[in-house]
Amino acid sequence: MLHRTLGERITDVINTILLLLIAIAMFFPFVYIFSVSFSSIDDYLQSNFVLWPKHWVLDAYKYTLQNDRFIHSIFITIYITVIGTLCNLAFTSTMAYGLSKNFYGQKIFMLMVLFSFLFGAGIIPTYLIVKATGLINSIWALIMPVLISPWNLIVFRQFFKSIPEELNESAYMDGANEFKIFSRIILPLSKPAMATFGLFYAVMLWNNYFTGILYLNDPTKWPIQVLLRQIVVVNDMTAISATANQMLTNPPPAETIQMVSILLATVPILIIYPFLQKHFAKGVMLGSVKG
């Protein structure tokens, strides 16, 4: 057992205290949002700073979940996240696998990828391209411009290069073509990487709101993050109270509705993480095995 000096023990105590303070600071907003969302009107009006509900009520949740526009936005976001993640993984993995092979002009394609990684087109050129392709006011405008992430592509390529070439050579000897090798050998070995980058893409698509503001003019096509921006940032409560005939007679305070909306928009993506956690650390490190 190594002998630890007094200075090292003091350093460990200071680091532990600092990490606990950081953890508390990061966890506090979730506690506040959770508490306000379940607080009654009287409790909230008496004290805007609520750390734990005195009287648990579900009025804000009923008000929010009975709204057709909110539920519709949730389903739109789920659709964008699921379909977009599948498309992201399909295009990123196939292009990365192709670039992991040696062929004529490979360096040119890699330079193009690196150039797109270092230099973005900008908002106006991207908007003009989206408009020219007819994707304005289409949910595909939130998927197609971010179909392949250059950084994810580069790391994915390094992961494919770390797979022993002997596997491909033995498959060639058995008469397999590139498609069979990729689908039956490479993809099963890529589950940790696919889970990791799938989580990255899913979080990006779920939290994306800026492109929705740029490309979607129809409020009925807004994903939940755009609707959440209208409720929280713009403080436009009409964005969630369109179906007034279904709402409560005395609606809860706008602040509690905002907290409920934030909580309901955050929880689904948090639920996914524990199922992918076992692959997460391994998948991140696999691309750095071989340069």
Task: Write up this protein.
With 291 residues, this protein is an all-alpha fold. The chain folds into 2 domains: 1-57, no CATH class; 58-286, Orthogonal Bundle (MetI-like fold), CATH 1.10.3720. It has 13 helices and no strands. The chain has helices spanning 6-38, 41-46, 59-65, 68-99, 106-118, 123-132, 150-162, 165-173, 178-189, 191-207, 210-215, 224-232, 254-286. The longest helix has 33 residues, at 6-38. It is globular. The relative contact order is 0.14.
Structurally, how many domains make up the residues? 2
> Mean pLDDT, as a whole number?
81
From the helix content, strand content and strand pairing, which structural class follows?
mainly alpha
The CATH topology of the largest domain turns out to be MetI-like fold
CATH class descriptor name of the largest domain:
Mainly Alpha
Terminal Cα separation, in Å?
37 Å
CATH architecture of the largest domain: Orthogonal Bundle
